[in-house]
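Agenda item 2: adenosine monophosphate complex prediction
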Amino acid sequence: MLHASRRWRSERRSIGLVPTMGALHAGHLSLVELARRENDVVVVSVFVNPIQFGPGEDFARYPRDPDRDARLLGEGEVDAIYEPRTELMYPPGASTRVHVGGIAEPLEGKARPGHFEGVATVVTKLLAAVEPDRAYFGQKDAQQVAVVKRLVRDLDLGVEIRVGPIVREEDGLALSSRNVYLDPAERKAAASLSDALRDAARAYAAGERDPVRLRAVLVARLRAEPLADLEYAELVDAATFEKPGTLAVIAARIGKTRLIDNHDLSIPLPG
Ligand code: AMP
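Presented output:
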């Protein structure tokens, strides 16, 4: 990968990297399109990173379909699919981990101990292998965006982090590789996350600014859905992830499936 990338660089071609865990959907493809518009060369990495999954999480059953992924990326659309084997990423004895701290600690960091250390480590390795000018992340994983920006700043990694908007289904559900876990009843119930964000954005538009009351709007909508089990709902600052702010972030379980979503309440959510 590094060899190919250094050749492109010697030809003065700019490189965009889109890191993914495969099981691609329109959310991933929107990042690929954005990268295509902004770079001469586009690399998509497909790697289900074992160290960002906790014990008891879905690493073993995470959806994998490399042939379908390759088809979706299409010939000519991307210049390379970087799909390293797990043994290559983490050979025996590999013990280094990138710990971001601070911003990586609340919310997802608290709910999934070790998750952001796994993310920061693999992102550092992917950046080292591809040496991109720009790397593309989805707003869907808002805290991941904040963690990666902090990582790049703190370690002087010199890559530009670009963020693409959340791609949603018609009923508002944010696209996610994990949505395939949902049975039909759960799939319907899963819209309660974006419904809650929409309700709170409406309250904000109507003049509500009290974070306690805005949070109550989120919680009420999620509690009204019997299949939803709320893990957290908070209003945070999008850059620091400190309270309060206008970024509403939610995590909830629908059956066994853990889903996250977020929305900046100062912007209406259509639907
Ligand atoms: P994943 O394969 O889930 O690790 O996601 C790879 C990248 O795609 C991450 O930067 C995600 O934030 C982004 N992504 C996932 N779902 C969406 C979505 N619905 N809209 C936009 N980007 C997304």
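Discussion summary: Residues 181 and 256 are 8 Å apart (CA to CA).
Owner for follow-up: CH.
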